[in-house]
Amino acid sequence: MGVEATDDGAPRPSRSMPLIDEFFMYSMRVAAGMTEQQIADMFQTTVATVSRVTITWANYLFCILGTTPLWVSRDKIRSVMPEKFKEHCPNVRVILDCTEIAVAAASSLTLQSEMSSHDKERTTLKALVGVTPHGFVSFFSKLYTGSISDKEITELCGILHLLEPGDEVMADKDFVIDDLLSGVGAKLIAPPFKHAAQFTREDTEKTQAIARLRTVVERVISRIKSNHIWDSPVPLSLMGTVSQIWYNCCVMANFQGPLSCEE
């Protein structure tokens, strides 16, 4: 590989591949989920080159997409609120859910323990995702070790600082975050935490309505994880870049357009 000069005269390695091909290589790794070896064979290059290009483009896109504003104002959310939300939960600001991605097991037993999921027998990283009622990704946390609870991640990730008094937050009943939300003047909208025999007719109708509306966040997370790099455990070689890749996938999900509550 040769050397070329930058505008300030400093040397830098010359590129042997057009930028569009590098981006295509990154997309094949992240979106298509192809292995580094498969991509290397296709481009007739080395695995090291594929790894370098993937990491470089993950960081570059992270810098570009990191300037994209995500948190949506209350007035804007109300102006595009789907009718079914207006009927049942007109003050919902964000719908929350957590998701996990599998990662290759670390050699450190301590790290393995921290990254072990509570409900899945595997090593994972975990993130909180928040979407608006019309399916826009308005918040997502960084990746935490898989052993963290939903409440802990809600408390640590910074979303509480974005909420305003009067906001309503929709989540599953496993999110025991009433006290955290009340501390910022917000309210939790979740299915009643009762046994089936204790449900009134009103409880049943409310539970069914929340369950239907809450699927918006599940469908958005499915969009994010439709990037096939998440289909198999993330290799240790990408652990330094996995947060940037996660960030890019979350932001790019918004370019797929809004979700319909009728779907």
From TrEMBL:
Keyword terms of this UniProt record: Metal-binding
Protein name: DDE Tnp4 domain-containing protein
Co-factor requirement: a divalent metal cation
Domain annotation DDE Tnp4: ranges: 96-254
InterPro entries per the UniProt record, alphabetical: HARBI1_dom
Entry annotated with the keyword Metal-binding: yes
Keyword Metal-binding: yes
Pfam (any one): DDE_Tnp_4
GO molecular function, one term: metal ion binding
Organism, scientific name: Salarias fasciatus (Jewelled blenny)
PANTHER family cross-referenced by the UniProt entry: SI:CH211-69L10.4, THAP DOMAIN PROTEIN
Superkingdom of origin organism: Eukaryota
